Amino acid sequence: MADFDFDDSPEAGLKGSLGKDFFWGYATAAPQIEGAWSTAGKGPSTWDTLAHTPGRVVDGSTADDACRSYDFFRDDVALMKRYGVTAYRFSLSWSRIIPLGGKDDAVNEAGVGFYSDLIDELLKAGITPFVTLFHWDVPQALEERYKSMLDPGRYIPDFVRYARVCFERFGDRVGHWITYNEPGVYALAGYAGGAHAPNRSSDRAKYSEGDTSTEPWIVGHTQLLSHAQVYRMYKEEFAPTQHGTIGITLSGNWSAPYDASSPADIAAAQRALEFEIAWFADPVFGPGDYPASMRAQLGARLPTFSPAEKKLVNGSSDFYGMNTYTAFFVRDAVPPGQPIPPEDHKGNLAWSDTNSEGVSRGAESDTEWLRTSPWGFAALLRWIWARYHTPIFVTENGTTARGEHVSAPPGDDVLNDVHRIDFYRAYVGELARAVKEDGVDIRSYFGWTLLDNWEWAKGYTDRFGVTWVDFESEEKTRYPKRSATFMREYFGHLIAR
Ligand code: PNW
Question: I need a surface site. Which of 187, 297, 403, 474 has the fewest CB within 10 A?
């Protein structure tokens, strides 16, 4: 019996608006769920190093065990089958597959075996794997050898060889590849703000090394070049026999002008989208170079593409992988004519939670930056479609909810996660409307995330899952939240039969 009735809801008219081959499911990342951080030959990653450095994770936790999905992956697949998903997006841990990471370093057969078993288990359950090669965990050995992405000449061949091993070992069964997850968040959180691995920033009160004014732009450039090389390699050497698709996933939230009638605020909102999204999307899907607004502010601190690199990068993604969570109201931080500090990495912006008319960007979650802003998602889908005309795979979207930090067993008040249900109802509804009303080509939706997990430097303090996890228990016991049921029934309504 169905829990939710969509035939008598505002979404009634959206019935069957998504195609039969639309993929839906949940996304995860290896460091956030696997645990087994040093099991069966796995080498340490930069995130293991961060977690074992006092003061770097807000609750002092590590990801040593996380959700123990390394041990319980068969249970996770069974859970997803119950949840009715058709696809699962997960990432591979580079240092589980090549413990030291480098192109001449040994492959760890136990690590390959783990992912091979996971892929087989998914296929047996009728769930299509979407595999991310890089979700932020650089092998620690490469950080120590040459500062990883800060040395593109040494990093790129190492990443390309890692990708080759993955295509060789898994490509017979995996047809959907994502090279990088959110190169922008990776570059800014790890090299500008510094809270993420490898903890580099100009903020000397907190971090001993780094240069916020230059390093994020180098790291972004390295990711673009290495992504593109892997894309070309896959197309030339693997796609002819493996017939898969491959692309990149970008992060990006909607930015709207604080005062919708102010030309300066309108320009600020456009600049926000360019610094956050077009930084990567213009070189890959658009005109083939960084946006003019970035060059104007950053000058020579932003690397340049040689003609050959431009050609390599432009057109190097079969689809637009889209991670998005929220929306902001923005205006200029520094007034026109005054110098913008070289550490600015967001495009000279000031943010507010309400606009000039007092309209809120949305309901608060349990995470400061994240509010329920489906209006922004609706606008963003159309902005990306209009600017890039590339099929969109939504690869992450979701929310935390207040009141979920309780001891096991969680009560019905916790498991009935109305805030998350409202979020998913609104966002996925906007997705279906963009498809139905404006013909935006959207092919997947992955909720973030399957399980409450280790939310990076936030530790276990942010619960994004449709499954509540008891991190105190030996088995990391899983309790389905009601949003999981909601999603199964909602997609049952939206996807054509
Ligand atoms: C994503 N923002 O990161 C990551 O891909 C996930 O691993 C992570 O757990 C999830 O979102 C939730 O945070 C983001 O500030 C981090 O807009 C920050 C932002 C967006 C995405």
Answer: 474
